[in-house]
Amino acid sequence: MIGYLFLVLLLAAAVGYVMNRATARAAIAGGSARFHSLAGFHGAYALLLTGLPAVLFVLLWLLLQGSVIDSIVIGSLPETEMAGLDAGRLSLIEAEIKSIARGNIFGTPEPWKLEAAERYNSLRSIASVALWVATLAIAAVGLYVARSRISPEFRARHRVEAITTWLMIACSVLAIFVTFGIVASLIYESIRFFDKVPITEFLFGLNWEPQIALREDQVAGAGAFGWVPVFLGTIVITTVALVVAVPIGLLSAIYLNEFASSRIRSISKPILEVLAGVPTVVYGFFAILVVAPAIRSAGAALGIDVAPNTALAAGGVMGIMLIPFISSFTDDALSAVPRALRDGSLALGATRGETVRKILFPAAIPGIVGGVLLAVSRAIGETMIVVMAAGLIATLTVNPLDSVTTVTVQIVTLLIGDSEFDNPKTLAAFALGLMLFIVTLALNLIALRFVRKYRELYD
Amino acid sequence: MNKTITAEAQIASNIVSAKISARKVNVFYGDTHAIKDVSIEILDRSVTAFIGPSGCGKSTFLRCLNRMNDTIDICRVEGTIELDGHDIYDASVDPVQLRARVGMVFQKPNPFPKSIYDNIAYGPKIHGLAQSKADLDGIVESALRRAALWEEVKDRLAAPGTGLSGGQQQRLCIARAIATAPEVLLMDEPCSALDPIATAQVEELIDELRKSYSVVIVTHSMQQAARVSQKTAFFHLGLMLEYDDTSKIFTNPDHEKTQAYITGRFG
């Protein structure tokens, strides 16, 4: 139904555009007065005035309709039945009425519930008709106003621009609000967690054993929520990833940008970009099926004890994932160095290698560092590879041949399964998420600083 | 003024010999034939100006003289160019070493994003011209002095070169080129990004440099060519139409195209 309404609105707006443009065009062609705006702007003005307020109205209506109808239905329920009910019971009754209204009747409900369901249905159909009428009326008023404004003096060009500006502002405000919403929900749940587990224990505790008893009679650990070993695991895996990604990404970008012939460049660059397009789940397969067994057998050959889920395997594969990331940042940073500097150095009798080392690289380093920092925050937040290839037990170790777990892995395991949402085990996931968010946010801010600084360097 | 230039040019042509001689040089950018059969003798210890309308190939030819065109993939050079009698396109010649002997200054000042000192010291360090820190200091100071920049920057050698004014930056780039002790200095429109005062300073400097180097300058300003050069070559559509003493080119050119160009009828 709503789909049709939007379709009709779109049509009305299009009609408004065509009508207004035609009228304005005729007026411009026939009249002696010089029009301020071209016919197209008068058309666009009609389009916006017909479509925008009506669409906003529909969205607002849809937002409010449900709760308004609910409260009317609930309010009209007989006093005798409602007396002394708590919120939980009330929402149960509400759900039952709605399901009756949809035609799913179980057993024989009380007559007052049937009556309420009927009222609910009739209210909904009234609302639907009212929505159509009101929306079309608003669209019609918009169209009328736009048509009555066609005149030589009317500055449709500026009006259209003003309206689109406001539209863009609204979109960016929406994006910002969503971000705030996400952060707020994280903080809210984390505060609930810190009610049950002291924040000092979480931040400084060296034990992570979130398995606590869900029922009185269950056998489980006492539960320890120290995030240090988990975060240390993240750091170990991130370090391994960077040790793989930074040299390979950096050197390959320098080679492709400064030394390779255009033919080699045109072949290798797309291949590197394919690497960026591989889904992380596939990297995960690669880690458990290829890299981890290889490391294990290599370790066995050397007589070293290697865990089945090593940080080395997970981190190494994550490093491969980050190569295109780092090389594309390096590439951008190197290309941004003006050609004049390159020529200047070569004209002084420097080789290409000396030019890269002494002129291009120092000039590009802030951009490269920015890229590396962004890669770090990606590595910290990366989930799929580590869920598949890293371990589950939080051990306090920095040995990359050991099994470690990461913050993201723990978040996933804490939220899988059916535990209640007022349980510290579940809520711990939000606290971990909050910490992850803070760390990556800080890294991103530092990276942005670097990138901004580098923009000011030459000029 | 013309008389003094003629006199100077004559003196110059008496004492100098050909530093660079090019024969039948052709340059191609992919399929475009940019330079056609250019032959020229460039004298030592004098200033040679290349003039001509935009796109006539004068910068391209200039860049052949220190093999900067090698850095462009699609560029191909034919013919011979000799520096002191040795073909610079010979397989035995290292273009990197050649560029230390034939310095270049670009159209837009392009100081490295380093300190003033490091800008100058860059070339000498690469080529191992200084044995000690004191040596290097000496090279930097003398290069800056010869570029007439020493007095202005001696107290802030550690300041970034990019912080100087446009004219100072260009003189810094000239000093940088001098510091590697080249024999020839190529200048590709060195004053086109400068204001008149800075231009005058750079021109004065070019005149000074003539005592020790062979200077080749590409310029769009006829007045500049007349002021600073002893020899002038006129390029048009990839051909070198005329090459003679500057005084002759600007007073009594042989070619009607040259006449038309220097009097401003086209270009």
Automatic annotation (TrEMBL), chain A:
MF terms (GO), sorted A to Z: phosphate transmembrane transporter activity
KW Cell inner membrane (keyword) present: yes
GO biological process annotation, one example: phosphate ion transport
Superkingdom, natural source: Bacteria
Protein name as catalogued: Phosphate transport system permease protein
Domain ABC transmembrane type-1 residue range list: 231-447
Membrane spanning stretches: 42-64, 126-146, 166-188, 224-254, 274-294, 306-326, 359-376, 427-451
Similarity comment: Belongs to the binding-protein-dependent transport system permease family. CysTW subfamily.
Function per UniProt: Part of the binding-protein-dependent transport system for phosphate; probably responsible for the translocation of the substrate across the membrane.
Source organism of this protein record: Thermohalobaculum xanthum
Subcellular location: Cell inner membrane; Cell membrane
Keywords: Cell inner membrane, Cell membrane, Membrane, Phosphate transport, Transmembrane, Transmembrane helix, Transport
Transmembrane helix keyword on record: yes
InterPro entries: MetI-like, MetI-like_sf, Phosphate_PstC, PstC_N
GO cellular component, one term: plasma membrane
Main location: membrane
Membrane topology: Multi-pass membrane protein
From TrEMBL, chain B:
Origin: domain of life: Bacteria
Gene3D superfamilies: P-loop containing nucleotide triphosphate hydrolases
Gene Ontology MF: a single term: phosphate transmembrane transporter activity
Keywords: ATP-binding, Nucleotide-binding, Phosphate transport, Transport
Keyword Nucleotide-binding in record: yes
Pfam family for this entry, one: ABC_tran
ABC transporter domain span: 20-262
GO cellular component, as recorded: membrane
Organism whose genome encodes this protein: Thermohalobaculum xanthum
Name the UniProt record assigns to this protein: Phosphate ABC transporter ATP-binding protein
Biological process according to GO: phosphate ion transmembrane transport
